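Action item from last week, closing it out:
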Amino acid sequence: MFSATLNNGAENVSPTPMTTRGRRRQRPLSSDNSAQQPKAKRQRLPLNEQTFVNPSATPETYEVKSTKTSMVELKQDGIEESPISKQELSFRSKKPRPSDRFSKGDGSTLLSTNIAFDVRKLPALPDRLKLDATSRQHGSADSSTGYALSLSHTHAIVWPYATSAQSPESFTFTLPYPSKHSTDPLPLGALVPSPAASTEPGLVIVMPTSGKVTYWESIASATTLDFMQQQRNGIEGSVTGMFSGETIIQITHAESAAGFILAFSSGRMAYLSVRDTHGRPKISTQFLRTNLGPSSSGFFGSIRNALSHAANQGDIAAVRSERSSKQGECTVVAVTSKGRLHSWRVHRGGHHDLLTEVDARNSILGALQRVDRTNARLPGESLKILDFCFVPRGLDIRHNEMTQLLPSPSEDQQHLLLLASLSNKQTWRYTLVEVVLSTGGSSEDPVYIGMVRPISAYSTSPDAHALTKPRLYLPRPNIIAFLVFDHAAVIASIARIPDSPDSQIFEDNHLLPASFEDVVDLRTDPTLEIVGSGIEEPKTQGFGTGEGKMPRIRPKNPALILLVRGAGTLRVAVTDVERFASEKPPEVTAKTKLEQAVFFGVREDNPLVFDIQHGLRFSDAEYGAAALELSHEILTSTGKQFSSLAARVDTNIKERMQYLEKIMSQIKSLRVKLDRVTKWRLLWNAEKLHVANIIWHKHEDFTHMRPQSSKKSIVAEIVEFIRSEEKSEPNPAKGEVDELRHWFIRDVDRMEIFIAWAYEVIKHNSRANLDQESLTRLIFEAAEIYNSAIRDAFTFRSKNLDLYGLAGERLEHGILASDYAGLPTPWTCHPFIANNVKRQVELSTEWVKQHWTPETEGQNVLIKRTRELLPQMTEVYLTVVQELSRSFLASDDPKMIEDGEKYEKIYKQDRHDKVVLLAQTENWEAGITIAENHESLPALAEILTREIDGLRHRLETPGLSPEQIERLESKMTAKEDQVREYFETYGKGFAFPFYEYLFTTFGVDALLEYDGDKKYKTMYLRTKPELAKVSWINDIIGEEDIDHAADTLLDLGLAREQQVWNKKIELSLGKLARMAESSRPSSKASMSIQDASVNGTTEDAQVDAIDKELAIIGVQDDLYNTQICPIISVALEGEELSLVQETFALKIPKKYKIISQIFDDALRRLLNHEALDPLTLIDLLTLITLPPETKEHMPDQFFQALRVAYNGLNGAERVQAERLIWRRCFLREDWTQLNNTTLKNDNDIVEILGQTDLFQFYCTLYANQQSGGDKNEYRRLSPSEAAGVYTEHLDRRFENMEKSYREKVLEAMRWEDNNLLKHIEKHRLEQWAKETRKYAEEAVDQQYDETTAAGATLSSPRLGSARKQSKAFEGMNGQNGTH
């Protein structure tokens, strides 16, 4: 019946010294057995070949063999006796005291536990049953005697099931009338309560088909071979009056009636007596009067009638008896499967009275369907009564109030609890039904239905081929019921819930509120099956003592005993039965079910299984919360399954890792769909525990490597340094004195704190002036911790995605590639870790740089190993920062997003800087690999370039041997080839950073001279505007592309050049290159006529643009050469700007000094030879006041400003600039004085007009028009046309400036405009402008005529007398406008 793999205890048994019968042992003195039996005479046994053979059976095993020829020897129908049964032993060892044999809990194995009950495997099991785990057998356990019984076709085995011995004293009985066929029903048997003078029970065996009965008054006396022959073989008899084909299906002890009740397949019942009226052993039977069986022929009749009658009323489901208050009487009740109940009062000797017969089917069915909706949906014809039990009587008031059942009724009523079922093809619904059965003489309804308790936790249909039928037990104090099936046992509470409004509603509606239910399931294994059961109930005060001797097993709380074939004897013990009736009763939760599966499902030899949900189904969210809570408890060892002591920490951690894995396998087997966050949290917890195991092994390695005087590794230091609020403190009062082990048992959930503290330990020790050797060791150990812990965490994560239901997640280097939305920050990228790993990388690199060179490679092993760890630690750091940035950027918290952007910048910077840092310790290859992994192509380019440069420098070292030179050249060639491969692999992504580093480090020459690539170098230069001056050289030298060189120069000169001289040269060279390219014969020959026409037009436009830019530069050069140079030529060094500003200072009201600032800025830029933009140059020309001595050296300044506008501006922008030029020109004169012509003659007035800038402007414009030297047709604007410019909107230079600045400029523009409008309105400026233009044009014409007549060259026109009067009006200049 039980697994043979268990220890059978044979090693504790001494061999039998002889085969002769030993003396009967002395009985222990006790109050129960004061009279000793007489000693039996020793009988000589004949010698045979087995006399001197040492038997292999244990001394505690006894076998009683029948003297009759056993049918076993004929091996009929495959029934064969096991070889071990043929070893008959007559020797008996000393029997242990009862207190020793039944000591509770000794040696039992805990198979499962929760808040409500424990399941333990009891150690006691006969060796024969251990070896025979597949045969058909059944049995029972009897707590009143303390023995269990197992029956097969050939043997009966009795043993004390609660003793602590693994191979207990057992009694094996060879059946005198074994079954003829293997398909026959198994023999029925029962233990007979021991007489007052004996401690062992008797045994009765009934053969179901033949009716043969064997009775042993005491199992102890039966095994005493020198006892009388009758006792040795048992008292034999048979059941008389059986029908042909009729079989006995049940045997039930008749309690105080000193007999047994037999139930037959025909529905009949009989009383079996094993003693006569004088108390001597004798077998007799008497059938009970009942309508269950056929009524014809009295005790006799045809089997046809019997079977037809049974079919109408249903098979007998169960027969149970209840002890009566009267001596020698008991009440027997039989229930059929269809709900018919029969009750008798049976007296000692078989006399009986029929109390009642009633069909309760309709009452039971109505109650089931009224109380339970599930039952209401099931067909009524499927109703079956599977079993029942008597409700124990005699409870005190307190316990009566704890149960849902009715108080004990009167003696003439039977208080029953039925196990009923309704079913269809898909489901079975079990229900407990309380029934009070009244005697036939009562005027009341004979059947009263009390409590109806549906079972929701179990819905599996009974197995028709099971060795035992479903059983129902109700132990005292009637709070817990046990339901036993072939592969499961149900523990169901029928406790009354405390009074509340809800309970009142349930009671008014005849409903039972949901209460505790749980199921103990066996594994799916052909050998595992529940083949027998029994209960242990407390007999303490308040539960009633009943009649008879005190039970051998006296538990504090009810327990269920299960005989499991292939496993052993299991005890399901309630931990606190009264708690079920408390305000907080035990509750089956997802966590309790998960705990059972995790902590007990990991054991391969556990016969229980925990992945069957039955009706106890929880939501996915409940399972997820339970899994997280349990996972945390495993990490912190806070559950009741854990101890604070671990002799081997690695073994402790591995066990906890198994628990974490079991959580996920259990979740998967239950088909629970966890949410994504829960899956990741569970995986991260497992990572922490895995890392803890790695670190512990590192600690042991560190300790082994350290000298004897310094065994405290950095792991121990870290635990010591962690702040008390970040770890749990050990309790010395409980013997917890090892702080390090305590951390690994209790604080693994804070692994991120532990790892971060590694750098802090080094920092503290360095400040404490630790010696160099010790500090080197700490740095190495810290590097090992950071590298192995986090890297192994990433590896573990990658390998276990599928286990944790995350197979669809995409990882890169062990971290999520994307989709961090909704996830908490992974522990591996805690900001503390990210910061301190970075510091550790920097510290380790600096330490290696200081203490390592290629020449000292082998001198310091720790330095060497630290250098070897640097690449891996750098890889870990970059991965951590990358994970941190991704996690924070996916957050909904603005602060975290801001931090995420910061970490992203750090990652992008450090994937270059920290990788390049590896070059300082000559970790070239590792640096290249990491740069590729993290797509840091700039770092890749820099490392390769630096390595090649280093090889080149080593080649220049004098004194190298030819072999060394060859080796270095070969390596350098390989590296240069590798660079070319990267050009092909990564394209410009690698090439551009390569050329960038080459240029910034080694200069233009190295860039232009590099011949490993041509394509990407040209592409790089052409995409770098700041390198345009180098690019056009490469175009000509490297690419021989003059056309693109011209484009580069022109683009540089037209758009980006800031220095006026450079701009002039670039535009000139670009124009020259363009003209040279277009004039090449090869260029012309390759074009069609249409292409030549288009290109010609394009060339003309480009040349025109160049000419316009050169014209503007010419104006700026004229201004600088004719006006600025004479001033700065006499200035001291460093005082040029101040002297120029002083010379050309504007006379502007202080309120509008913004104009002066604009003017001074333009003047400074002019002095610095910056290429001025057209608008700035126009400001400068229209605001500057030129000294008379230099003014004649350049054309009219307003005409020059107009030229700049026409060459540099277009559209509306040019129109606005023209208006500004004319407005400022009009404001150069004081029209108030000019308009006052009082006492002035005509010549004076004309002379005054000739001295104005407006007159000179008109003259220059007209002369330019007449000469035809300028293609532009310059407009002459009237004062009213010039008014209003830039009073509402400014030019594009001021678009991006601050609003306050723009407002000041607008205010100054309005001031200018107001002055102009004042002159127009009050001083007739419109008319004076016309007059001035007329006289200016007349003067030009006159000058042309005179020049023509004289054959002289045209000079600047002036009216004849105007020059003479110019000095008289000098003081008027600047009094209006912007001077």
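Closing note: The radius of gyration is 56 Å.
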